[in-house]
TrEMBL record:
A single Gene Ontology CC term: membrane
PANTHER family: METHYL-ACCEPTING CHEMOTAXIS PROTEIN 3, PROTEIN ICFG
Protein name, entry field: Methyl-accepting chemotaxis protein
UniProt region (Disordered), positions on chain: 434-464
Listed Basic and acidic residues bias regions: 434-447
GO MF annotation: an example: oxygen binding
Signal peptide: none
InterPro entries: Chemotax_Me-accpt_rcpt, Globin-like_sf, Globin-sensor_dom, Globin/Proto, MCP_chemotaxis, MCPsignal_dom, Protoglobin_sensor_dom
Positions of the Methyl-accepting transducer domain: 242-471
Stored Pfam families: MCPsignal (PF00015), Protoglobin (PF11563)
CDD domains attached to this UniProt entry: globin_sensor
Organism: Acetobacter pasteurianus NBRC 3188
A biological process from GO: signal transduction
Organism lineage string: Bacteria, Pseudomonadati, Pseudomonadota, Alphaproteobacteria, Acetobacterales
Length: 486
């Protein structure tokens, strides 16, 4: 609670009587002070000169005085105050001086240590001067009384000096306490205003400002509040703009994702068809591969058969040539037999003629000749039959030989064609094997592509859910910052 100067003066007047009583400053001490007042004039001047010389040489104290006039003025006021003390009257004038001194010290920020040190210098000088003067005046007869008197003088002087220090320092401390309480009060008031302003900002009112009084009482907090408000305002604006952009972006992304999902589903269907087609193609090519392998095997067997047939035909052709040669030999023999039969018939005929000419004696020979002629006729007929058959066989053999040769030529052509077909079938089989491997690879890749596309579709659907959640969060964020009036 703030106390006025008059109230302080009244309070000190009330409390000083207790201090005077405790210190034992009564009428006798007041008489001592009155007596010392006339003696201490020159001593006090010397002590104050010595003190302010020390002040002037001390940077911590010299900076309180702008010039020598200001220091001289302070010295005169301090001498007047001591004269008031030495008057022994500790009334309102004294209390007002004490309040003024304590208040001034608190105002300029003079630490009590320097005030106490200053009093120590003054008392040291005064005591030394009084002691020296008393030593000069003391007589041997009244030495004890003189020392007793000096002791009382010095004791009284020290008590009133300490009383003055007590009162000045208490005023100094009271002033600091008052200023601290006032600062706390002002600070609390400023904090209350700033707190209310922050609450308004928290409620979305970004137009709130702090008045000049708050700015003066709490400049750092005011600056921090303004920075906070500006920062929040900037963040709110950015969040509002960003949330709008995020909302638009997520909506656009959601539409794009829906399109992608549709395209991906279509791709999955198409890839499924491709996979099924490649599977069918793989099965078909595998079947064709098996058939081409079987065809290649059959062609190889056919090639072997044609080679064997060609060999057999060669053997048959050789056999036909041998048969033809044998039939030629038989024909030659038959011709020879036919010639012999003709000659035998002529001989038998001649024998019959000779037998008929000889008559009865030649009858037996005629019979034999007749038999020989008949045998010759039969032989000739048999030879003619054999010859006819040989001619037929020869014609057949020639026809068979021609057929065999033709068949041989055909088999050679077939063998060449079979070889060509076998080579072509081998090439086809190789290509079919390559196609089979390619179809298997395509089927595997299309299956992998189908899996990847299906996984992509699933991820895209999850992305849709994420976009929806992001949109909801963006809307929530936008609704949160929409209450701020930036």
């Amino acid at each position: 609670m703030h106390v006025s100067a008059m109230e302080k003066s009244d309070q000190k007047l009330t409390s000083i009587s207790g201090r005077l009583s405790f210190l034992g400053i009564a009428d006798d001490e007041r008489e001592i002070l009155s007596r010392l007042r006339s003696e201490l004039g020159p001593i006090l001047d010397v002590a104050l000169d010595k003190f302010y010389q020390r002040v002037n040489l001390t940077p911590e104290l010299g900076h309180f005085f702008k010039n020598e006039e200001m220091m001289h003025s302070a010295q005169l006021r301090q001498k007047e105050h001591w004269e008031t003390i030495l008057s022994g009257v500790f009334g309102k004038k004294y209390i007002d001086n004490v309040i003024r001194i304590g208040t001034t010290h608190a105002k300029i920020g003079l630490d009590p240590q320097w005030y106490i040190a200053g009093y120590a210098i003054l008392l040291d000088c005064i005591i030394q001067q009084l002691t020296a003067r008393a030593a000069q005046k003391a007589s041997r007869r009244n030495k004890s009384a003189d020392l007793e008197r000096l002791g009382k003088d010095l004791g009284t002087l020290i008590k009133v000096a300490l009383l003055d220090m007590d009162l000045s320092i208490s005023i100094y401390l009271d002033k600091l306490r008052d200023e601290r309480e006032k600062a706390e009060k002002d600070s609390n008031a400023a904090l209350e205003v700033i707190s209310q302003a922050i609450e308004k900002v928290a409620q979305g009112d970004m137009s709130v400002t702090l008045d000049k009084m708050v700015s003066e009482k709490a400049p750092r907090l005011t600056k921090s509040f303004n920075l906070l408000k500006d920062g929040i305002g900037g963040i709110v604006s950015e969040i509002r703009e960003a949330s709008g952009l995020v909302g638009d972006s997520t909506t656009s992304i959601s539409h794009d994702v829906d399109s992608v999902i549709s395209q991906t589903d279509l791709q999955v269907e198409l890839i499924a068809k491709i996979t099924a087609a490649t599977a069918a193609l793989e099965a078909s090519i595998s079947s064709v591969s098996k058939q081409t392998l079987a065809a290649e095997d059959a062609v190889k067997k056919c090639a072997i058969a044609t080679e064997n047939g060609n060999k057999n035909i060669n053997d048959a052709s050789e056999a036909m040539r041998q048969i033809s040669a044998a039939w030629k030999t038989i024909s030659d023999l038959v011709n020879s037999i036919d010639g012999i039969a003709t000659q035998t018939n002529l001989l038998a005929l001649n024998a019959s003629v000779e037998a008929a000419r000889v008559g009865e004696h030649g009858r037996g020979f005629s019979v034999v000749a007749e038999e020989i002629r008949k045998l010759s006729a039969r032989t000739k007929k048999a030879a003619e039959d054999i010859s006819a058959r040989a001619r037929q066989s020869e014609a057949l053999i020639k026809g068979a030989t021609a057929s065999v040769e033709k068949t041989e030529r055909l088999l050679e052509g077939i063998n060449a064609d079979v070889s060509a077909v076998s080579g072509a079938v081998s090439l086809i089989n190789d290509e079919v094997d390559k196609q089979n491997k390619s179809a298997t690879s395509n089927h595997h890749e299309s299956s992998e592509l189908q899996n990847v596309t299906r996984e992509t579709a699933n991820k895209t659907k999850r992305m849709t859910s994420t976009c929806q959640a992001l949109t909801e969060r963006s809307q929530t964020m936008h609704s949160l910052v929409s209450d701020f009036n930036v």
